[in-house]
Model the fold of this input.
Amino acid sequence: MSEITDTETLETTAENPVSGIDQAAGNFKYEMTYDYDAGTGLNERTVDYISSVKKEAPWILEFRQNALKTFFSKPLPTHWASKDLETINFDKIRYYLSQGLKPKRTWDEVPADIKRTFERLGIPEQERKFLAGVEAQFDSEAAYSNIKEAVSKQGVIFVNSTEGLREHPEIFRKFFGKVIPTGDNKFSALNSAVFSGGSFIYVPPGVKVSHPLQAYFRINAENFGQFERTLIICDEGSELTYMEGCTAPKFSTATLHSAVVELVALKGAKIQYITVQNWSSNVFNLVTKRGLAHEEAEIKWIDCNIGSRLTMKYPGVVLKGRKARGEVISIALANDGQHQDTGAKMIHAADETTSTVVSKSISVGQGRATYRGVVHIPRHLKGCKNNTECDALLISTNSRTDTYPAITVRGDHHAVQHEASVSKVSAEQIFYMQQRGLTEGQAMSLSVNGFINDLARQFPMEYSVELKRLIDLEMEGSVG
Amino acid sequence: MAGAAPAQPAVADLLGGFTPEVFDRHLASQAASPAWWLERKRSAYARFESLPMPKRTDESWRFSTIAGINLGGFAPSGEGAAPSQGAPAASPLGLAAAATLSFLDGRLSGRTPLPADLAAKGVVASTLSEAIGSRADLLREHFMAQPQKLGSAKFAALHEAFIQDGAFLHVPRGVEVEKPIVIVHAASGAGTAVFPHTLVIAEDNARVTVVDYFVSNDGGRHFACGANDLYAGHGAKITYAAAQCWSKQALSLQFNSTVVRRDARVQSLNLHLGGRQARHESLSQLQAPGGFSEMLAITIADGSRECDQRTLQIHQAPSTKSDLLYKNALLDQSRTIFSGLIIVDPDAQKTDAYQSNRNLMLSDEAESNSLPGLEIQANDVRCTHGATSSRIDPEQEFYLKSRGIPRKAADELLIFGFFEEVLNRLESGELQAALRALIRAQLGEGPRP
Done:
């Protein structure tokens, strides 16, 4: 049933020595036979098919159908966004592919070909080492989902979107589609119409989940669109760290990934959401992420974008309760042919709310890194604070970086500050290191790692080591 | 789109009072002008007609109150008799001027000529209508010659179509004009549309200071659609200051373009005090190595006024420098928008660009919007920008209070302190004093928090 197609055969371009190296870990593919396939293209029947395969409640089907209408009615946001979006052909994409609907609870039950994929990516090993629970999504559905017994005994629910809406509607329906309404943007509407997979998590009051929960998203099929849906609810005083990773093999055709991630932190809760995005360089990664922070709650997005052809992602926090805190830490690395259009949105909606955005981007070769941000402080609030810092590092003479923040402040009781700088690697630093015996490439890697070091340190150890390794690889051969 | 006049037909939304019939009448009144000038006006009018009105989704109009940009109810002024030319105030704004030109509703109302020695060196401080005949070559090269990149192409075309007169300043190679040349653009009456224009051409190594003073003779609801183009040749130095004191009912759209050649230096300071809705677009093009453009602005927004500033610093050549500092003080229910962009072209290595927008919030009802942007395509550059919005430092306020200074006076002192950083960038103490006096008058009038 399965045939290994290895890295070499999938590598289509070789003109840039750097391109492809970073994706090497994920750039392999096993031929699959899918039991469920919604075919190519998108219409009402696609949506009906997905809903019927999942045996969904009527209200979900209706939700999907309405979302599809919204998707068709909305134009692409190209009046401000990259024209590259116009190259996406929505009729050539496969919207649903799965081998089975029920995720397995042990790796032994996972079909051998899928299991092989995740073993090669090191997921089961990481689970044993430092995770409280793992979900592994393969194309449209989770192949594996497990939470350590100690954690589930605390009442933590960790399931995929289908299970979440079917088995715990009393918990999830209330917030589903509320933080990010269907019509928020064209791609959130698309996701709402065809979503499948993703994590639905509920943490009961006061429970502090000591180890991170992790989801790993894998695209295997060509011309595929992955539309996972994640909803995390942390009840009063609870704490959670969630991590997601993703890879796909490199195809010559475009692949679409369009997720919706909603977080709800109730009074005093803390959510930390960590993403290491390493899609192959043919993936359009168009993701809507937003959190709702109630009184004294804290939501922190740590968002690291290394892969994909075009990423458009601006994690946001709606600071709804007094003294809520929002934070976005963003690292973007744009290599040849890549456009990392990332940023943050901070919507202050209560007194004494504070938000911080720190963004660091690195552009290599003809890569383009863009920061786009919104800070909004409406009328009649008191004591809101925002601090935004964007630093861009340009490695090659033709690298590109853009910064487009929008800051609205109403009233005289706030303090808002935005700063950005653009620089190149200091020639003096490189000279110094070379003079101490490092090669130019090593010196460059060290310098770039130094640039992001204070942010990388905020990642869990395993991720920050991985991040440094990826940056070393990306920087190889980029000098000059 | 226009909330005040919902039943207007579409063409009026698009053209307002500037219909083809009105344009034909205007052309007829300009019949004495040369054919090429009239042809330019005709093609400008065609552009104005065909270009769309700004839309809410236009990035270059983000946060602007689009409904306020309604051209209905305005008509070009001055098709009747020319204003009687009285002698203008000897020193407008208290400045000892090298020459002055005064315009009322678009036409010359008074002037004091240049001293003989400067005239003998070839310096020209004339009206555009005089220059159309005598300096057609320079006009063809420089008049409205730069691209409109900041959203108002339609209104710039309107300006070009309906312009009656303006100032034409030409400083030949190597000539220095010590004292400022002052131009007064006055408007009067409700519904009047004026198209003030100032064109400054400083040839290689020339030096000149130019002051534009925009003023309403009454509190009328004018429409001012103005342009000023600054051209600094190699090694030239232009200091430009504009005091925009239109009535608080006026709609003002002003487009600036600055071209900076090799080793030239242009410093411009715009003081924005008037207009119910005032939009100012400023484009600096650094075209050759060593060029430096310093862009400064002071805005006092009060009442329910909207002050909208859009800037673009384009570094087109290596080793150029730009430095922007825009400070806004916001009172009452006012709104400000600052949208700035620095573009560094791929070849413009060694660029040094800076952009800073500071908003001083003095009311709980005021709203500031900042969009400080960068588009950098070269790596060996130093580009930074910053934007802040905050209130008066409570510690400073407390200090002044503890010294027995009343709150109102203390706030004014602190607002002055806030603006002083910008004024101090001007070399001329006299010019600083003139602008300071205007700021003082504005603060004295406006209701206090």
